[in-house]
Predict the structure.
Amino acid sequence: MKKSDNIFFDLGDLAFLGKNAIIGKTVRIRKPGRCSIGDWTIIDDFTYISCGIMVGRFTHIGANGVLIGGDAQITIGDFVNIAPGCRLIAASNDFSAGGLVGPAIPPEFAAKSVIADVKLGDHVLLGTNTVILPGTEVPEGVSTGAMTLLTPKLKLESWTVYTGIPARPIKKRESKSILKSVRKLLQKYS
């Protein structure tokens, strides 16, 4: 992909863009210097990113995703699939606190902010319209059904499928064949 293929920023401004990575023409990254995108990763069109991100290898971020967090960081592992419409939120306002809310409000009038990094381990699969709140850490192999809410208070277990609001476990994922496939893929593409 040529550096000029994105209409919002120069791909050369990214902190790192891995081998064979694809960034859609209409992906909006507000702070490209804080963003590292791993090898073979794809970020689909109409995705909006307004924080620092580190994305691993062979990862996909589907169309219409939102990754926001201002000064916070979102870290996404290898072999992650984020379905269209997911929201990864690393910064928000405390709506119960006094003060006004929103980025247009001068700091002296603003409500307290909630800022906490979000981390997704390797092999995480997020179903469409999953929402992840500030401070949430999603362990390796977790999968969510559509419209699932993950919060930092949940005790998520590796290789487990979650669904609902709030998320609740419904079954374990089989990891052995997935990890075997990863070894074969990395032998071929490393």
Observations:
- The first strand starts at residue 16 and ends at 17.
